[in-house]
C-alpha cells in the first residue's frame, strides 16, 4: 500500500510543478524587467507595460500565437530577422543585424531566438534605448513601433499604473455597487434598444435608486469623462488587460476624478442617475440605473462583450470575502 501511494504521489508531483504559481510568475517577470532596466537605463515599468499590452493582445487575437513564456511580447519574424532577410527564421545575431532586424542574443547562448524571454525582452529594450531613455523619446519609439496612437496611449496608461502601485499584481476586481445598497440586474447584453436607431444593448443595466454610489470595478486609468447623448454623464476606465469599463447614465462624478486619474477596485467614481437620451443635462427619460459595459481592444479595433458573467463573479467574490 505504501509503495502504491509513493507511485501516486510521484505521478502527481511533476505535473503540478509545471504550472508556476501566479506569484512566482510575477516575480520572474519583475526580475527580467529589472534586468532590462539595468541594461538599458529605462525604468522597469515601461517593459512591464509593453509586455502586459502584448500579452493581452495575444489572448484576444486568433492570428497570433498564444504566449508560452514568462514574457508576452511577440515580435513578428520579419521584424526580428529584418525586412529584407530571406531567412525569416534567422537566429544568427550577425546576419540579423546586417538586415536591420531587431533580434539579438540577450542571454549569451549565441542564438537570437524570438521565443526566448531574455532575447525578446532585451531586443525590445535595445530598440527603445536607441531613441533615448526619457519619457518623450520612449513615447516616440512606441509610436514608431506600433503606428497607432490608441496603442501608445494604452501602454502609457499601464506605465502610469505600474509606476504608481509598484507591483505587477493589478488584476483584482470589484462589483460597481456597494453591497449594502439595493440594486437588481439581469442579463440583457445584445438586446435591441429603443433609442438611437439600430443598436444592440452593449452592456448590463443595474437598476438602483438615484444617488447610489458607483465604484470602479478595476485598477485602471480614467480614459474618458463627460457627456454623450446616449450615455449621458459617463466614465470610461481602461484596466491592465486592455479592457475598457464603461459606466453610463450617471447622476454625477466623484470629486477630483479627471481623464488620466488612477483608480482602484471599489473606489468611488460617481453615482447612479438617469442622464442621457438628449443634449447635455437631459435626465429622467427612463428609470435610474447604471449602464455598465465592457470592451476589449485587440490592437486594431475594439468590441463589446457581455459583462454579465463578470458582474456575477465579482458579486460572488465580495459575498465570500464579507462572510
Ligand atoms: Zn444599458
From TrEMBL:
Domain of life: Bacteria
Molecular function in Gene Ontology: metalloendopeptidase activity
SUPFAM superfamilies, sorted: Duplicated hybrid motif
Residue intervals of the M23ase beta-sheet core domain: 200-298
E.C. numbers: 3.4.24.75
Alphabetized UniProt keyword annotations: Hydrolase, Signal
Signal peptide: 1-19
Protein name: Glycyl-glycine endopeptidase ALE-1
Amino acid at each position: 500500500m505504501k509503495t502504491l501511494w509513493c507511485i501516486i504521489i510521484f505521478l502527481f508531483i511533476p505535473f503540478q510543478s509545471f504550472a508556476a504559481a501566479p506569484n512566482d510568475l510575477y516575480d520572474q517577470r519583475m526580475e527580467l524587467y529589472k534586468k532590462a532596466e539595468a541594461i538599458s537605463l529605462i525604468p522597469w515599468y515601461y517593459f512591464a507595460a509593453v509586455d502586459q499590452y502584448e500579452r493581452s493582445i495575444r489572448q484576444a487575437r486568433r492570428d497570433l500565437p498564444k504566449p508560452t513564456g514568462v514574457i508576452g511580447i511577440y515580435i513578428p519574424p520579419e521584424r526580428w530577422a529584418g525586412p529584407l532577410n530571406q531567412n525569416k527564421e534567422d537566429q544568427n545575431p550577425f546576419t540579423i543585424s546586417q538586415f536591420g532586424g531587431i533580434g539579438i542574443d540577450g542571454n549569451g547562448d549565441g542564438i537570437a531566438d524570438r521565443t526566448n524571454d531574455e532575447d525578446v525582452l532585451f531586443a525590445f529594450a535595445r530598440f527603445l534605448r536607441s531613441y533615448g531613455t526619457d519619457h518623450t523619446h520612449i513615447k516616440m519609439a512606441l509610436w514608431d513601433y506600433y503606428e497607432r496612437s490608441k496603442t501608445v496611449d494604452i501602454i502609457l496608461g499601464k506605465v502610469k499604473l505600474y509606476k504608481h502601485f509598484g507591483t505587477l499584481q493589478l488584476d483584482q476586481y470589484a462589483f460597481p455597487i456597494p453591497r449594502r445598497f439595493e440594486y437588481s440586474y439581469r442579463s440583457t447584453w445584445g438586446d435591441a434598444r429603443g433609442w438611437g436607431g439600430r443598436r444592440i444593448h452593449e452592456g448590463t443595466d443595474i437598476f438602483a435608486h438615484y444617488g447610489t454610489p458607483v465604484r470602479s470595478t478595476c485598477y485602471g486609468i480614467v480614459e474618458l469623462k463627460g457627456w454623450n447623448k446616449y450615455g449621458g454623464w459617463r466614465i470610461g476606465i481602461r484596466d491592465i488587460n486592455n479592457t475598457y469599463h464603461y459606466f453610463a447614465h450617471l447622476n454625477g462624478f466623484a470629486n477630483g476624478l479627471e481623464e488620466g486619474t488612477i483608480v482602484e477596485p471599489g473606489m468611488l467614481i460617481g453615482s447612479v442617475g438617469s442622464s442621457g437620451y438628449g443634449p447635455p443635462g437631459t435626465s429622467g427619460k427612463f428609470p435610474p440605473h447604471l449602464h455598465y459595459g465592457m470592451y476589449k481592444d485587440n490592437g486594431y479595433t475594439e468590441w463589446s462583450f457581455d459583462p454579465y458573467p463578470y458582474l456575477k463573479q465579482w458579486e460572488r467574490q465580495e459575498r465570500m470575502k464579507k462572510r
